[in-house]
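Hey, resending since the last one bounced:
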Amino acid sequence: MPFIAGLCKNFGITDTTNKRFTLQNGCKILKNHFSHIQRLDYQDSLAVTNVDDVLDYIYSLTHRPPVAELDRQTLKELLEKEMIHGVLNIPKEYGMFICQK
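The structure tokens again:
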């Protein structure tokens, strides 16, 4: 939930996503083991038209993310402010590495 955590930074919320191996640091880690590394990005986002669906998901998680520390109404208002033409686009960052020895 890096995107949503970023929206909540003024409330002292931080992103606690595991960042040991990511698209950003993967090349650096893999170069110790492979001579050729190619990163392929897949651009995607989640288009949300009902913010309550996202809130229901967040507050239903067994391991509650830091953003769930905010009360529901505050988080709802933050998300609704980001909507454009009734749609909240939550970026998803996906990709892969193709490596050769």
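The radius of gyration is 17 Å.

Sorry for the duplicate.
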